């Protein structure tokens, strides 16, 4: 789940992100963070090799050291693009965004700043934020396992059923359309809803096709990408 932390300077944003990261990591959650700092100077240093790469036209430029990896992209990516890259490449349970009060994700306001749209907590205690995060992570985990058909056979939408599961009131077994195997079909970057019956068709067909190919040994996880000839 994504959670923004925003407020005026010295309102405690970094301290809250730090404490959340420490406590959530100790509980076993994977945590990533993004620091929005529009008024700070570029971290790349003029005259350094990486700066020269970028000045010559390299984009992006990646700096690899013994301490870590830094990717330099110019112009800067929009916050939505940054969050998409982090979630797609690293799959964190929790993605904390410091210093960005806009964006289509829930946020925590600190200090006396006017709450922005999407603010779910204002000057909360640490445990209150952690409780909210735990609940939302469980919701996302449950929703990810549902077919997203919103067929209503369980009496609820998939989103409402996921919320009930996260609160311990229902279980995944209450979804009659949940496929036995997880089949994901993504077209144009969007995941298509797939129910149990529909999931069986590509699963059985593709595995039957793969069984005739040299090198396939019945691995349970299979990924096939169909691209246009121009890609």
General description of the model:
Helix 4 (126-144) crosses helix 5 (158-166). This protein has 231 residues and is α/β, with parallel strands linked by helices. The relative contact order is 0.13. The mean pLDDT is 89. The strands form three sheets. The chain has a five-stranded parallel β-sheet with strand order 2-5-1-6-7, with helices on both faces. A two-stranded antiparallel ribbon has the order 3-4. It has a two-stranded antiparallel ribbon with strand order 8-9. It has helices at 13-26, 49-55, 79-90, 126-144, 158-166, 196-210, and strands at 2-7, 31-35, 61-64, 69-72, 94-98, 107-110, 119-122, 185-187, 190-192. It has two domains: 2-142, P-loop containing nucleotide triphosphate hydrolases (Rossmann fold); 145-210, no CATH class.
């Amino acid at each position: 789940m994504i959670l923004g932390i925003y407020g005026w300077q010295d309102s405690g944003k970094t301290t809250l992100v730090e404490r959340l990261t420490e406590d959530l990591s100790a509980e076993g959650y994977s945590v990533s963070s993004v620091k929005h700092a529009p008024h700070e100077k570029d971290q790349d240093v003029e005259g350094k090799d990486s700066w020269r790469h970028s000045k010559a036209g390299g984009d992006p430029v990646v700096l690899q050291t013994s301490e870590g990896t830094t990717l330099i992209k110019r112009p800067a990516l929009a916050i939505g693009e940054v969050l998409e890259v982090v979630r797609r490449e690293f799959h964190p349970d929790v993605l904390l965004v410091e210093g960005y009060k806009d964006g289509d994700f829930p946020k925590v306001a600190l200090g006396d700043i006017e709450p922005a749209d999407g603010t779910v907590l204002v000057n909360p205690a640490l445990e209150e934020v952690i409780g909210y995060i735990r609940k939302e992570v469980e919701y996302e985990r449950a929703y990810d396992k549902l077919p997203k058909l919103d067929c209503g056979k369980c009496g609820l939408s998939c989103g409402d059923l996921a919320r009930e599961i996260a609160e311990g009131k229902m279980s995944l077994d209450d979804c009659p359309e949940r496929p036995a195997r997880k089949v994901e079909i993504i077209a144009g970057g969007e995941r298509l809803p797939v129910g149990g019956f529909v999931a069986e068709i590509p699963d059985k067909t593709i595995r039957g096709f793969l069984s005739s190919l040299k090198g396939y040994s019945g691995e349970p996880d299979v990924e096939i990408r169909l691209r246009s000839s121009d890609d």
